[in-house]
UniProtKB/TrEMBL annotation:
It comes from Paraburkholderia eburnea. One of its GO terms (molecular function) is metal ion binding. The lineage of its organism: Bacteria, Pseudomonadati, Pseudomonadota, Betaproteobacteria, Burkholderiales. This is Radical SAM protein (TIGR04043 family). Keywords: 4Fe-4S, Iron, Iron-sulfur, Metal-binding, S-adenosyl-L-methionine. Its cofactor is [4Fe-4S] cluster.
């Protein structure tokens, strides 16, 4: 989880710039632990700067041309972040977790079942297949859910038993604090809610670990109570893109579920999970103007939903791999006012029980929430 300190203006600027521009690794051995593929945005590496954990793009085209560069870390995992040849700040890289060395009795490496995000989050894509992804024409253009499967870095369906085994090891060996269960969307009306319930039940039987589940809005709001009863603490339903035209262009399959359905699902989910325990991911830089993002964020906050706005990261191998990431100025024009709005609504990242909003590493939003008014 990110530090609870107020950051000076120069640090906020640095974090926003680094997340937009990406980081060049000067030597291959600086590569270490990074996140490629999976559902939603990826191609990141976890770093810690000024006590803040941040996922920074390292495998993208843009990152290879970034003005930020870091050498291989020393024995303590620390290196120096340089802007060109000028040292800017100490930078620490997340260490490879101990549970990555283990495998199941039938020979599946634990790292193919779940991975470490940030420094203390265990994350998995329970179902690595998606109805939206069956045809590239209908798939979300930013998503790489099929790539890590094709590359043999993961398994298509992680069983509840496998997830429970890995979660227990990650808590015992690496002290992970919460878990994210995301999923590709199966061809069933529950949109994956049943699979997430089965997974959560098994994990909670094995270990005391707060869980966030992430899926599209299910057909029936009764699923929210079932998810809570299965041991899920928080829920993410991710809008990603907001404008009708942009949704149809960037995620034609997912856009068949209208924003109005997300809004009614948010309202029903907040009644079950509580204010601030339901969230959505919004990808900034895919065509939605800042004012639209802020207007929708205001509606979400009024419903009690945490609007986790992250900079779009173009992932290699996806149709958007050459799409420019948002500039630091663009991100700032959203995150600075949004940070104040979130604070005023009393829905801060720090109060979320589990999941992306709590981790916060894919955006500098939580740092903007802490800026004194
Ligand atoms: S914010 Fe979510 S996707 Fe990003 S590193 Fe944290 S848990 Fe993973």
């Amino acid at each position: 989880m990110n530090a609870s300190v107020n950051l000076p203006e120069s640090s906020l600027q640095l974090l926003t710039e680094l997340q937009s521009s990406g980081l060049r690794l000067a030597t291959p051995d600086a590569e270490g632990l990074s996140r490629r593929g999976g559902a939603g945005p990826s191609d990141h590496k976890a770093v810690v700067i000024d006590g803040v954990t941040l996922m920074v793009p390292v495998h993208t085209h843009g990152a290879r041309a970034s003005g930020f560069v870091a050498n291989a870390p020393d024995a303590n995992g620390v290196s120096v972040l340089m802007r060109g040849s000028i040292p800017v700040a100490p930078i620490a890289f997340a260490k490879t977790p101990r549970f990555y060395k283990l495998q199941t009795l039938d020979g599946v490496p634990y790292s193919h079942i779940a991975t470490l995000h940030g420094t203390d989050v265990l994350a998995t894509t329970v179902l690595q297949t998606c109805i939206r992804y069956e045809s590239r024409k209908k798939a979300c253009k930013f998503c790489a859910i099929g790539q890590s499967l094709a590359a043999g870095r993961t398994v298509a369906h992680k069983t509840p038993e496998q997830l429970a085994e890995v979660a227990r090891a990650a808590v015992l060996l690496d002290g992970v604090k919460h878990m994210v269960l995301t999923t590709g969307t199966p061809p069933t009306p529950d949109r994956g809610a049943a699979i997430l319930c089965d997974s959560a039940r098994a994990i909670r039987r094995a270990v005391d670990l707060p869980i966030q589940a992430q899926c599209e809005p299910p057909d029936d709001d009764a699923w929210f109570a079932r998810m809570r009863d299965a041991g899920i603490d928080t829920l993410g339903m991710h809008l990603e893109v907001l404008g009708e035209a942009e949704r149809a262009r960037i995620m034609p399959g997912k856009a068949t579920v209208p924003v109005s359905r997300y809004m009614s699902a948010f309202k029903a989910a907040v009644e079950v999970f509580g204010r601030g325990q339901v969230s959505t991911y919004i990808l900034a830089g895919l065509g939605d103007p800042p004012q639209r993002v802020l207007d929708i964020a205001q509606q979400l906050l009024a419903l009690g939903v945490y609007p986790f706005v992250v900079p779009f990261v173009p992932i290699s191998g996806t149709p958007l791999e050459d799409h420019a990431p948002p500039t630091p100025e663009f991100m700032r024009s959203i995150l600075a006012p949004l940070g104040a709005m979130v604070r005023e609504a009393g829905l801060r990242a720090a109060d979320i029980k589990a999941g992306c909003g709590k981790c916060g590493a894919c955006s500098s939003l939580s740092s903007f929430e802490k800026v004194a008014a």
